[in-house]
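Lay summary. Proteins are chains of building blocks that fold into shapes, and those shapes determine what they do. In this project we predict the shape from the chain. Here is one chain we studied, written as its sequence of building blocks.
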Amino acid sequence: MYFLQKLLSGESYGRDTHVFAPNVALDEEKLSEVADCGRVICGKCSDVVRNSASGRGIDVYEIMRDEKFLAVNSRLTAEGALMLMLEHSLISISDARVLVMGFGRMGAAVARLMNKLEISLDVATNGSSRPAYAFAERVVPLEGFDFAPYDVIINTVPYPIVKDSELLTMRETVVYIDLASSPAVNLEYAKYLGLDADIYPALPAKVCPLGAARAMRDYISEVTK
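And here is the predicted shape, written in a compact code that computers can read:
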């Protein structure tokens, strides 16, 4: 948000405008800070808050529902995942075998980047395997996990899908990177096992803050023009 403030310095919007980070959900408390007939840009909000805003003439723009922003955000997140791989992996990424869990927008962005770097890659998905085979050597189901072959595991599925017993198949040197809003594994148990496993929310803002700020600026310019 620091870089976004600098990028928006000197801009005038004609009415009370509040901008929140993409990972922030608008609630009634934050909405109370906005003047009637104002404007709010946030990550998401509930129907209740949206209706409350509408009753006060406040326009709400949810950046995490914008396809163009989400595409850029996924690309930046994928780059962040690569940086984490380089930082945490004990082997060269050119020698690593990677598993990407999930093949939605985020999973596809990660797989595309890994493919460009010619990194050995498998994808786990319950969707159609055909798109994933454009980037992966193998496509496996999102169930019955055997993590033994992998040096790096990158999750993009936002709900628990991995059994604790399946964590025992992970290598001691594995790097587990969770990019979802909630982890697919029991992180507490994974850390108890001594694994390098963690969740990394809002990754673009942490690893490429200027790029993330530019994406937000472009969205704000689009909805306020």
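What the prediction tells us: The mean pLDDT is 93.
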